[in-house]
Please model this.
Amino acid sequence: MNWIQVQTFAQGPHTYVGIEVFLPQKPESGERYPLLMLLHDHGEDRTQWMRQARLERYASREGVALALIDGNQSCFVNSVTGYAWGDYLTKELPEKLAGWFPISERAEDHWVMGVGTGGYGALMAVQNAPDCFAGAAAVNPVLDVSCLYGTDYEPNPGYIFGEKESLEEKGYALTGRFQVPVRIYCDQEHLESARKWAEKGQQVKVEALKTEDLLEEAFGAYVRGGREA
Model:
């Protein structure tokens, strides 16, 4: 695949953002590729997916463009302090990528996938903007960000979400009810809680991961066919 490194100013979060873009090796004239955006976990950056999954192996075979995005430990949501990472992810960035590269502009060709807090961000993206995506996936996602309060999580969760007691009121609670298909991949430690959470949801499927290569296994399964489930 073609690997392009981008450093660009993002209007939503008011900062420069690094992006790794992977495109099929020999794009045909006039062809535009579906897009899968990959979101990293807390304490990581956009290279997490490159280091922990053989992205090119599956994406090249399926003809999918990839965008690995730095989220600056934002959980990829609009913060109470005015940094609009959520708007950047759902609207600003897909439009820019489609303008710069042979990537489809159509929402039905856009998916988002994340791990940990990035998984929470991916699920929030399709919950808040279902018309911008065809679906989402998450690997061991944080399903309730209230668990971040009272821990050593940095930055302080209050800077992102505000007061713990008002998470639902401010729109930071995941409902589990989605308008587009959602796939959650979990190891044994997270599997039971994810299944219980999904029981009250809509359009959610939970899959057990069988190997220690969590991102490799989940990414491969999602790109090969999970996006259509």
In short: The chain has seven helices and eight strands. The chain has a mean pLDDT of 94.
